[in-house]
């Protein structure tokens, strides 16, 4: 990651191998309807995913919590800084409102601007995907994000099966 102001903070790295070719896994990130299938931890849905995956492009996504939690939809933007099709995505993650206007992070230890990188590696008919998130300032925030990513990746596995 180039010129990362959050280097040295608590980073998250999650690696998952999917039983699908890179092109299919790439679509989970590049197509709005595919993002809706996996964005958000277990029990959450994604009612909004407007994805413009290109350098300089942006995504607006929302997570909807289960009704019993009684919390409003949580929006974020992903501003793409580097895109190499079927190989790598770098983007800046920011919490936002439904219009894409930046909002404060939802919890202590979460960076205002999260620097994220996703790398896709072909392994025959399988894909190794490595996601790295930079900038958390507490172990608790890092661990919460790691748990959420693992659950998102579980949902990706289900989306690829079905």
Structural domain count: 1
CA radius of gyration is 15 Å
Number of strands: 7
Q: N-to-C SSE series?
A: EHHEEEEEEH
Give the proportion of residues in helices: 10-25%
CATH architecture, by name, is 2-Layer Sandwich
CATH topology: Alpha-D-Glucose-1,6-Bisphosphate, Chain A, domain 4
Adjacency order of strands in the biggest sheet: 1-7-6-5-4-3-2
Contiguous uncertain segments of 5+ residues:
none
The separation of the N and C termini measures 33 Å
- Which descriptor suits the 3D outline? globular
CATH homologous superfamily identity = START domain
- Secondary structure category: alpha+beta
Average of pLDDT: 94
Q: What does the secondary structure layout of this molecule look like, with pairings?
A:
Blueprint: E1 10-18, H1 22-30, H2 32-38, E2 49-51, E3 58-63, E4 74-84, E5 88-96, E6 114-123, E7 126-136, H3 139-161
Antiparallel strand pairs: 1-7, 2-3, 3-4, 4-5, 5-6, 6-7
Helix pairs in contact: 1-2
Structural write-up:
The protein is α+β, with helices and mostly antiparallel strands. The protein has a single domain (10-161), classed as START domain (Alpha-D-Glucose-1,6-Bisphosphate, Chain A, domain 4, 2-Layer Sandwich), CATH 3.30.530.20. It has 3 helices and 7 strands, in the order βααββββββα. It has helices spanning 22-30, 32-38, 139-161, and strands at residues 10-18, 49-51, 58-63, 74-84, 88-96, 114-123, 126-136. Helix 1 (22-30) crosses helix 2. The N and C termini lie far apart (33 Å). The mean pLDDT is 94.
